[in-house]
Amino acid sequence: MVKYSTNNEESEILPNLLNFDNLKDIEKSEFEGFLMAEILLTEKLNIRTKFNIKYILDIHKLSLGHLYQFAGKYRTVNMSKGGFLFPSAQFISENMNLFEKDILSKIPNKYKSKGDLIIDISKVHGELLFIHPFREGNGRTARLLANLMARKQGIATLQFEKIRFEEYVIAVQKVSEKDYSFMEKLISTII
C-alpha cells in the first residue's frame, strides 16, 4: 500500500478501482464523485424523500462507487483521527440501526421552524460523523446529507467552510455524550 504524509500523520492511498497511486488523482476523482452525487440527489429530492440508512449507503456508493469496492458498505477496520477512536467496526451495523430508529425515522417531511431543522441536522450530522461508518468519505457524506436535508426544506447549501476545524472536532466528540448543543451552535451559524 502506498503511504503519504499530511500534517505529520502518515496515511495510506487505498486500493482503488482506477489503480491511482497519486494522491492528487484520488482527491480529484473523489471530489468529482461527490459533486456528481450531489447534483443527482438534489435533482431527485422531493418532499417524500426519506433519509434513512439505505439513503446514506446510496450517497456513499453513488459518490465513491467508481473508485472503491467498499463504497456503500460499512467499514471493516477500526479507525481513529487525532487521537479520537471511532466506534469499533464490529458495532457499526448495530449503531447505524439505532441511529435510524432513534433519529432518522423521526425526521418529518416538513419542518414547522428553522430551529427544529437545525436541531435535526445537528443530530443527524453529528451522529453520522461520530459513528464514522465508512472507510473513507464520512465527512463528505455527512455534509452532503446535511445539505440535502436543508434543500428539502428550501434552504440553500450550508457553508461548512466557515466552521473552524477545532470547533468541529469538539462538537463531534460531544455527540459521543449525546450533547448536541455544540453541533447545533455550529449548524446555526452556517445555515
Please describe what this structure looks like:
By secondary structure, this protein is mainly α. It has one domain: Fic-like fold, CATH 1.10.3290.10. Helices cover 52% and strands 7% of the residues. The protein is built from seven helices and four strands; from the N terminus they run ββααββααααα. The strands form two sheets. The chain has a two-stranded antiparallel sheet with strand order 1-2. A two-stranded antiparallel sheet has the order 3-4. Strand 1 and strand 2 form a beta hairpin. The chain is globular. The N terminus is likely disordered.
Query: Helices and strands, in N-to-C order?
Result: EEHHEEHHHHH
| Category by helix and strand content | mainly alpha
What is the mean predicted local confidence, pLDDT? Answer: 92
According to CATH, what is the topology? Fic-like fold
What's the shape? globular
Cα Rg: 16 Å
CATH superfamily: Fido-like domain
Number of beta strands: 4
How many helix segments?
7
Total tally of structural domains: 1
Architecture (CATH level 2) name: Orthogonal Bundle
* Portion of residues within helices: 40-55%
**Poorly predicted runs:** 1-10
Main beta-sheet annotation: 2 strands, antiparallel
* Text of the CATH class: Mainly Alpha
- The percent range for strand residues is 5-15%
Features:
disordered N terminus, 7% strand, two-stranded antiparallel sheet, 191 residues, Fic-like fold, 4 strands, mainly alpha
